Amino acid sequence: MSNHIHLIIRSQEQTQSSIIRDMKKHTAKTIIKEIAENPQESRREWMLWMFERAGKRNSNNTTYQFWQQHNHPIELNSNFLLRLNWRYGG
């Protein structure tokens, strides 16, 4: 599907929520910047308007909202679950 992504992440230093937060922040800024600076993008104004409209509905944002606020994390706490989910994404 083109409307979501699946990640398998692991860290001994950071929590899952902080990794996802930082990934969303970085990718949203990068993607929005690329859209805004690409004059060949025919849907540029519409996309920026949609992101801005979504951002105004969320008090956590100052301008745009690219990602939804919620996540659906699943802990892969066994090799079986890891293999099962690895195959699902591939």
Automatic annotation (TrEMBL):
<dbReference type="GO" id="GO:0003677">
    <property type="term" value="F:DNA binding"/>
</dbReference>
<dbReference type="GO" id="GO:0004803">
    <property type="term" value="F:transposase activity"/>
</dbReference>
<dbReference type="GO" id="GO:0006313">
    <property type="term" value="P:DNA transposition"/>
</dbReference>
<protein>
    <recommendedName>
        <fullName>Transposase IS200-like domain-containing protein</fullName>
    </recommendedName>
</protein>
<dbReference type="InterPro" id="IPR036515">
    <property type="entry name" value="Transposase_17_sf"/>
</dbReference>
